[in-house]
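Re-running the complex after MR caught last week's input typo. The corrected sequence lines follow. Everything else is unchanged.
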Amino acid sequence: MSVIHRVRLPVGATTMVEVGHRVEPAEVLATRRPPGGGVTIPVSAPLHRSASSAAACLSVRPGSLLESGGLLASDNRGHEVRVPTACLFLSYDLADGSALVAPLMGTHPIFGHVRGEVTTVSVEAIEIRVAGALIRGVGGSGTAVHGELRVVVREPGDELRASSIDVGATARIVVGGSRASAETLTRARAMGVAGIVLGGVLDKELRDFEATQLRRREVGGVRGDFGVLLLEGFGKVGFDHGMFDWFRQHDGRMASLFGESGRLYVYDADAPPARRALARPGDRVIAHRRPFAGLGGELVRVLDGLHATSSGIPARSGLVRFEDGVTAVVPLANLEATEPLRGS
Amino acid sequence: MSVTPDTEMALLVDVGSAWAKAGVIGRVRGRWRLVAHASQPTAWGADELRTRLSEQLAAVVDPRLGGRVNELLASANRVECHTARQPGRLAVVAVSRDLSGSSARRAAEAAGWQVSGLVTLDDGRSLADRLALLQLLEVDAWLVAGGFDGMRSLRAMEAAALVAAARRPDSGPVIWAGSDELAAEVLSLFEPNAVTIVDNPRPDSRREDPGPLRDRLQAILRQTMAREEETHLASIALPRAVGTLALASGLRVLAVDLGARTATRALAEPDGTLATRVHGGGGLAGTVLVPGAAARIARLAGEAGEEAAVADLLQTLRARPASLPQTPQELSATQTAARVQLASLMEDGPGGPIDLLIGAGSTIACAPHPAQAMRILIDGVRPIGVTQMATDGGAVLGPLGSLPDDEIREGMMLLADDLLVPLGTAAITRGGEAGRVAMRVTVHRPGWPASGPFEVRSGQLQVVPLGRGQQAELTIELGDGVSLGAARRSPRITAMASGGSVGLVLDARGSPIPLPRRGDDRRAVLAGWQHALERDAVIGAERVA
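Corrected-run output:
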């Protein structure tokens, strides 16, 4: 199977690949020269004019790109102002007769972070066909990372403990269980783990982790990328058994994780267990709200009419036999049917 | 000779971003009534919705029609409204965060745009970071604001230049809402016809006038995003229905519709004039983006649990908007989130008393207890004065508002009995000293001895039973420094109240509602108010579904 990955290009990017090109995660797809901090260039003084009359001599308008030595202003009588380096012209100050420009910095690479074949190249985006599976999560954090998958918990409901992160997890994408504390995430990052895939995490712990990383980045204490992907929900939420089995089957495969956008590409992988919004009797299901969030089971039957939950909301509900042995009535809106793995 | 029995029916469908609601109207003893109603996650699809309606109808229709219900439903007139399939995404670039930036952002959100990025020249980012952020945004339009009218602001021009540098030509309109002196220069930065000049929402340092910008942004949103018949958009249809209702009843009507993604506020004057605000990210799923929302909800809800649990719930509302609160704690937090979102929808809200307040959207209209719907409305909207309260329990206002102009009123008259679910009337005061009597209310019902006077002290909430269909005249004496919103001409005020499933709510908690600082005290006070509201309400009696 294959999926399409889209890499959006910023304005002014120069593409380095063509359709049909095979790319690797660390390969440069395009480059750009981002503007740096603003600097002012005197305009009225070199033109021997007042600040207000020099405005009419500008040969570019705000937002224009200028090459090194490009003409910024001219009075058509031999006086010219040229920019010393390639820059972006932003504004002209009528008070002091100077121009504000943002010099273009060095060439900045744009990576795709995936392995695949380029299918489309346009000024707006490059699309890459990835041979493998795409898994979408409900949230995440961090940058794009790449590494081998490594399942480090025994059961889908197990919490990912800091002690599970050892040197063997370095540069890998660790597949954990139902939760990881901020301490575990911090240790993982410190051990050089590329990323973590979890069933769920407490929103507060994820925010705390992000805050500490931000502070460390600000003082220059953090290097390297790290991503977190949440598959099922927020809180202590385990993996669906089928999905966990799928990860176990693909232990050791290469993958690319995009934390911020909640996506995981697993290369050369079979299709992951599919999900369906409306569950039918006999379906394997996963529950998404408390008190059963993240628990898998089987929808035994759909109840007639509406059934009031303990919150009092009347809803179409079904009787679910959960894998932990509990049988409970759950609103169908809180269930998703999960397709069994092929061959299982 | 055999006669094939037939029937007339119509399907009213409201397809939201998370939930779809449908009602079947048919003739019952010569009158048009809502005879079946179902709601379900939108992702379940139309076939499932029709199956549910068929099941309900099969149990009640003429047995001779029993086998043909599905076929009749499939061929029934379908009146539908829906949430816009994709929100309009806007980038806002402004000079200052607190002045031009906040004005522009508020106006954009109130016009229904989803603000995908906000950059101000005092946001602490470097110039390079601002440009990098803007260059990566995928938006449908750009809004630039800054500078006071009559002045040439270098910074405002810089803001426009940032957009010129970051935006691809022909990639969505640019709206200039800055200094009028710079308008011509800004026009020259972009390709022809790209820029729309709008009145400055901050014409000088002391004045804010976001109205023209908001109206223009609303119009641009419709031009840019509404590729379908716009009267079928819920954000257009619901206000149209509310306008018709106000015109027909001679009442000042406010409707608030809290959806998963968006929130809509429609105020209709008795002459039918409408003022609508659509907050693009103002739905329940957007609560997570409100700074400090989890802490605020944990504090206001009383029984929602710890802040961390509320934070997880808010993320769940974003990630799985079609799921339902299954525990009392989650319900309490969700309803409090609804109150918070309504309160923010009512910022810069309509002044003056409201005659009728209607709550729409599943969280309000399908609250398990009518007192909970009442609580969301009176705490979220806080309408000072004497106001009839109702919900759009059958989700029929939106579909009816999508009818042609001349048919909306007819549709409402036909469905008069099932149009709204009355909750009762709320008399809400502000001002007064804690512990002192805020109002004394005597209730006169025709044919009954007067009841009361009911004394309500500042900080208290009391419910007087007044059932559906009952009318009463209220005589209200206000305490010192207490107001019902309008100027007082005599020490006694009379007002009419109509009953509903909650009754007459006398609310002297003020606005905003003060709460004890100590957690235990606060929880006790909150529980007391909830108990007062629920005690006399008739559970389920007025529910449609």
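None of the earlier attempt is carried over here. The longest helix of chain B spans residues 328-345. Confidence is low (pLDDT under 50) at residues 538-545 of chain B.
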